[in-house]
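In pairs, describe these two lines:
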Amino acid sequence: MNDKSKSLTADVLTAALPYIQRYQGQTIVIKYGGNAMLDDQLKSSFARDIVLMSLVGIKPIVVHGGGPQIEEQLDKLGKKSVFVQGMRVTDNDTMSSVEMVLGGSVNKEIVQRLNVQGGRAVGLTGKDASLIQSEKLILDVGTDSAVDLGHVGKVIAINDQILRLLSKSSYIPVIAPIGFDNSGNSYNINADVVAGKIAEVLGAEKLIYLTNTPGLLDSSNNLLTGLNASQVKELINTGVVHSGMLPKINSALEAVAGGVKRAHIIDGRVNHAVLLELFTDDGVGTLIE
């Protein structure tokens, strides 16, 4: 490395210092999904980002999806997926696959990657320590109509005690969005919704969603940022925000209304997207506050 490169590296590190000081001791909830979970290089950069956050005193909590992996498993079983407003209709067989994939292979791979990088990650589903208490979700589709999505749930309560205990001990919780009810039924819950609820309950400093887009785009595909709740709701009403983005945006709005200081929708296809959002002036996506 020549002197110019060394100087540039030092500049980058010192520029991050004010942000490290600002977020030290704060909880940041990251919803991990999209291409960042599929590309090997992006998987590694994400793991390094999260471990670095933990080592400098930030308290990251990871909530992950796994749609493509679930889809692959269902294809093997000859089952076709059906979605309503971005949510997967989940019958008994599909729920079994969801638990196997999200609570098993996907969760454990994320935990392993974090630990290989020197982190102290712990994998959880909503069933562990009664983390995510839920009930069946009946989706209102307007005009007095409703859709039964099967084993799709909504969050009733979060056991924040276990998350606070783990974070206080410098462990990194990695959460699969599987809930349960008082009768022992399992539920597939949208990971965006779970991340938002956890951020709200913990009073997180930030809620970050990794996506397959640069952020929230307007009708001309221009990146929007620095949005307030009224502006976001207008984008929903005019149809600019739709389908799979709706659960993400709605949960971000609820989290901010519930006390989370800022929500970010960032491009998970960018290497080290989380660190760029946290430790640089410009960030890499859409800010909602």
The chain has a mean pLDDT of 90. The first helix runs from residue 3 to 23. Residues 25-288 form a domain with the Carbamate kinase fold (CATH 3.40.1160.10).
